[in-house]
Every structure is written in structure tokens, then in C-alpha cells.
Amino acid sequence: MLKLPSAWLCGVRVQHIDKTECQVSVKHRWINQNPFNSMYFAVQAMAAELSTGALVMNKIQESNSKISMLVAQNKASFSKKATGKIKFSCYDGERVNEALQKTIETGEGQTFWMKSVGLNEDGVEVSVFEFEWTVKLKRKKSK
């Protein structure tokens, strides 16, 4: 909540996270709607990004290394109006493991893509987001 206050206010919540997957949900409400009576695309993007970014943050924490992370690019497609409760799921935890291991071993930054699919309560796909994450070791500050 303290790190992502706008997402919290819009109703974005992590439902499940483990080593390989993360599910985030958000319900269509007045505060997150667009003029077309569905969920605003940016709210969907916040939920989708969190489903990928939470996996990256957890893996960085587990690594006990000082690693920075940043979204370099994203792509999105929308196939149906987002109404009701939407669940965004990402199953790309292994991609994070590979990138972090490589950046720790080589000291070079890595980039990798992660996908999050948004489904409505009927299991119908409403949107797909892809995020290109970059990770790199933080440099030690010299005095």
C-alpha cells in the first residue's frame, strides 16, 4: 500500500504469489472506470505490471544481492471490455531466475519479457500485457 498508493486506491490486490506465478485482481468500480463504463486501461496496466513486478521483487529479495529493476517497455492488447472482477496472472518466475542468475554471475544488466493475462469472472480474456524488465547489480558507492 505504501509503495503503490494509486494501485491500492483503485482496488489492485495480490491474490497469490509463489516462486513461479503471481495473480493480482482488481474489480471494476466507479474510481477506476473510463467513460465507456469499463475499467480504465491504466488500472489494468497497474494490476498486470504488479503481477510481473512482484515476482521480480521477491526473487531479488531472495538473492540477497543489491539489484535494481525497471520496466523498459510494455505492450498491451485489449479484446473485451473489462467489467466485474479481473484477475491478471503471470507464470514467468523462471525467466526472472535466469536473468538474476546471469546478472549476478556476469555483473552485466539483463533484460527479459514477462506476460500477464487478464481474465474476467467468466474466464474470458479481456487484455494481455507484456513488460520488458531490466535488472542490474547496483554499483557500490565510492567515498
Summarize the helices and strands and which ones pair or pack.
Layout: H1 5-10, E1 13-17, E2 22-27, H2 41-63, E3 67-78, E4 85-90, H3 93-106, E5 110-119, E6 125-137
Antiparallel strand pairs: 1-2, 2-4, 3-6, 4-5, 5-6
Helix pairs in contact: 2-3
Pfam family, one: DUF4442
InterPro entries: DUF4442, HotDog_dom_sf
Protein name: Thioesterase
Brief overview:
This protein is of the alpha+beta class and 143 residues long. The chain is built from 3 helices and 6 strands, in the order H-E-E-H-E-E-H-E-E.
Description:
It holds the Pfam family DUF4442. It comes from Christiangramia forsetii. This is Thioesterase. With 143 residues, the chain is an alpha+beta fold. Helix content is 30%, strand content 36%. The chain has three helices and six strands, in the order H-E-E-H-E-E-H-E-E. The protein has helices at residues 5-10, 41-63, 93-106; strands at residues 13-17, 22-27, 67-78, 85-90, 110-119, 125-137. A six-stranded antiparallel β-sheet has the order 1-2-4-5-6-3. The longest helix has 23 residues, at 41-63. The chain is elongated, with a radius of gyration of 16 Å.
